[in-house]
Automatic annotation (TrEMBL):
Keyword Nucleotide-binding tagged: no
InterPro entries for this protein: EgtC-like, GATase_2_dom, Ntn_hydrolases_N
Record-given protein name: Putative glutamine amidotransferase
Organism annotation: Candidatus Planktophila limnetica
Stored SUPFAM superfamilies: N-terminal nucleophile aminohydrolases (Ntn hydrolases) (SSF56235)
Taxonomy, superkingdom: Bacteria
Keywords annotated in UniProt: Glutamine amidotransferase, Transferase
A molecular function (GO) term: transferase activity
């Protein structure tokens, strides 16, 4: 299980400047979600995503603060990993995952971890480097994007999993140079036993500066809950925000 945070903005900036003083509170969630951290940036109209990740707790990492300071962008994703039982803690299993201009982070699990692998396009299989269900989910999404386009591909991938695969949550953020899709799809009753009722919820905030989306567990005053079984779509040209049922 993991924590997700992302933004798109009009001007290039960092997570510190985008989120503000509450960013440090988000980072404290790594005391539990302690098996890795990663940042992906994809500037508007840039053709290749950039990534840095390490298999250690963000709040204890010597490199985390430096990575955040150097991740200056008008679009970025941040992931704090709490490894699914049985999946190793390693760099290859640490989010984000990137392919060309597309970056991806996930919170939850599909069962078994390799359930989606037979559905991934053969040309993408060699790109898989780790053991996680999340990476296979990512390349399944890429497969559907290649078939149907960015938004419809993300939606089709989520709906296939909903109908055919066992999962706790397939909450995900998928960003490219033009658009950002946030999938909110989970079983609330399959959250960790200790977790609050809103553990799987995603919330967003849109204003004149840009759009922020994040998992819960920290201070998010005035944010809007993204309803379960829905997708948030942000256009990076117009900054229009649309909520679409899955």
């Amino acid at each position: 299980m993991c924590r997700l945070l992302g933004y798109v903005s009009h001007e290039k900036q960092t997570f510190n400047s985008t989120v503000g003083s509450d960013f440090s509170e988000f980072v404290t969630l790594s005391s539990v979600h302690c098996d890795g951290w990663g940042v992906a940036t994809i500037d508007h109209n840039q053709s290749v995503a950039q990534m840095i990740r390490q298999p250690e707790a963000a709040n204890k990492s010597k490199d985390f603060s430096t990575a955040i300071e150097k991740s200056v962008s008008d679009g970025a994703l941040l992931h704090l990993r709490w490894a699914t039982a049985g999946l190793p803690v390693s760099e290859n299993n640490t989010h984000p995952f990137i392919y060309k201009d597309i970056s991806f982070i996930h919170n939850g699990a599909t069962y078994p971890p390799a359930a989606l692998e037979p559905l991934i396009s053969p040309e993408l299989i060699p790109h898989i480097q780790g053991d996680t269900d999340s990476e296979r989910y990512f390349y399944f999404v890429i497969t559907k994007i290649k078939e149907l386009g960015f938004i419809e591909g993300c939606k089709a991938a989520a709906n296939y999993i909903r109908a055919n695969v066992d999962y706790s949550s397939i909450n995900a953020m998928i960003m490219n140079e033009k658009q950002w899709v946030v999938i909110c799809e989970h079983h609330p009753d399959r959250a960790p036993d200790w977790a609050p009722d809103d553990y799987y919820e995603l919330k967003y905030k849109s204003d004149k500066q840009g759009v922020l989306v994040a998992s819960t567990g920290w201070n998010q005053p005035g944010w809007t809950v993204l309803a379960n079984h829905h997708m948030l779509v942000i256009d990076r040209d117009s900054f229009a925000v649309e909520v679409i049922p899955l």
